[in-house]
Structure formats: structure tokens, C-alpha cells
Amino acid sequence: MSDKTPHDSDVSFIRALAELLRANDLTELEVKREYGDNDRLNVRVSRRGEVVTVAAPASLSAPVIASAPAALAPAPAAPSDPASHPGAVTSPMVGTVYLQGEPGVPPFVSVGQSVKVGDTLLIIEAMKTMNQIPAPHAGVVKRILVEDGAPVEYGAPLVIVE
């Protein structure tokens, strides 16, 4: 009988999280509940699609960033704005950048290194979750635009891969 009650409430809780995700246009939500010593629930609800992370109830600059490339002609990117570079890999979320998997190990990539589609370029920690940022296309890493441990915003340029 006691096994059924937490299960039913957990299902309701997960449904409420899914509704919260949808209602607030979030991509991912993670919650940990502690019921007792060896009784806990860890839930991660996520959906696929364009990644937009809301870190606080503030307006995102995503629409401005998303509309900026449409205003640009197929002319070469201005060197002063790395985000407009055609090889720019931008941050899909707000978080903290890590260039290596753990302290003391080599970085995932370095300038001049060739990468294939899907190779990990760096990690962004968001809400205590480590998110690998893959190379969207094959090429050579021309510039690394962020420092290890630096905070990043949604749409910020991270790496140039040509």
C-alpha cells in the first residue's frame, strides 16, 4: 500500500513538471526530491528542438540573435563580431564553459585541430548538468573565444570552426 502512494504522487509530480516545461517554453527541467534516508526521486524532463534555457524570469535575447543573421547579406562576416562569422559555434544555453573534461587533462580541442561532426568542442555546465557541445560541421578550429570556467549567455560565440 505504501509503495502505491508515492508512485501515484510521483506520476502526478512528473506530469506537473512536463506541463511547467511546456507552459514556460523550457527545454529541460531537473528536480531532485528527498523523501527519507534511502527514498528519493530524481527526475529530468526534457524535450527536443531548439535549445533555449531560462536561468531566471528575465527576457531572453534569443529573438534578436535569431533575427540578426537574416538581416545580413551573404557578405563576409565582420572580423570585429565573431558571432556573425559563418563558422561560429554559439552557446545553446546559459552556463559555465569548461574546455576540458576535468582539471589536469588536455582540452577537448585546440586551435589548428581538425574536428569531425559531433566531436566534443567543450562542455557547458547549466543547472549542475554537464552539456557537451558538439562540432556542428567538420573543419579546423580557428579560434577559441571563451576561457575555461567563464560564464556564457545564450547565443554567445564559443569557437570558430572553418
TrEMBL record:
Domain Lipoyl-binding, chain residue ranges per copy: 86-162
Keyword entries, A-Z: Biotin, Fatty acid biosynthesis, Fatty acid metabolism, Ligase, Lipid biosynthesis, Lipid metabolism
Statement: the UniProt record of this protein carries the keyword Lipid biosynthesis: yes
Pathway involvement of the protein, from the record: Lipid metabolism; fatty acid biosynthesis
Keyword Ligase: yes
InterPro entries: AcCoA_biotinCC, Biotin_BS, Biotin_Carboxyl_Carrier/Decarb, Biotin_lipoyl, Single_hybrid_motif
MF GO annotations: acetyl-CoA carboxylase activity
Protein purpose: This protein is a component of the acetyl coenzyme A carboxylase complex; first, biotin carboxylase catalyzes the carboxylation of the carrier protein and then the transcarboxylase transfers the carboxyl group to form malonyl-CoA.
Name of the molecule in the record: Biotin carboxyl carrier protein of acetyl-CoA carboxylase
